[in-house]
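Friendly challenge for the regulars: who can give me the structure tokens for this chain first? No prize, just bragging rights.
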Amino acid sequence: MSRAVLSIGSNLGDRLGHLRSVTEALGDRIVAVSPVYTTAPWGGVDQQDFLNAVVVADDPGLDSSGWLRLGQQLEAAADRVRVQRWGPRSLDVDVVTCDEIVSDDPELTLPHPRAHQRAFVLVPWLDVAPDAALTVDGERRPLVDWLADLDDAERVGVQCTDLRLTDDPGHRNPGHWDPGQQGENRC
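First reply, four minutes later:
Bragging rights claimed.
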């Protein structure tokens, strides 16, 4: 079985609808879905805030390249246009990890090379996998430790919403991350 952690985001058009298109396409392959967070844009481009979430999914028929192709197909279906690095987008689907694979392939670097620097990835991921760890440059650390390394402004900029991507309560880990660890108001 192939398990992937996908970070999804949108800040153009029907942002929630774009995120839900991912969970609808994944269907029974979903293991866990985080709540939806609103986050300030990353990368210094002036644009609308994003809605972000993390989805953990299993599919025995997909390898890491298959997850990448599926993400690209979902982005194309949402009319994703790549005009500006870190610019606005209807849908962004990033493969963060897949089966603990470490790869520096330029088409798909795993784990995602900047996941440890992005609270909008770490916070929702902690919500569905509080014991998860991430390897960066050969160093494996719990996600909560990577998150603690980020600036306060980065962490505080990730705000929980009342929005959900699925009505299935089984898609959320009932032992989700306790935001009190960082002294912030999370889901």
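The first helix runs from residue 15 to 26. The mean pLDDT is 85. Your move, everyone else.
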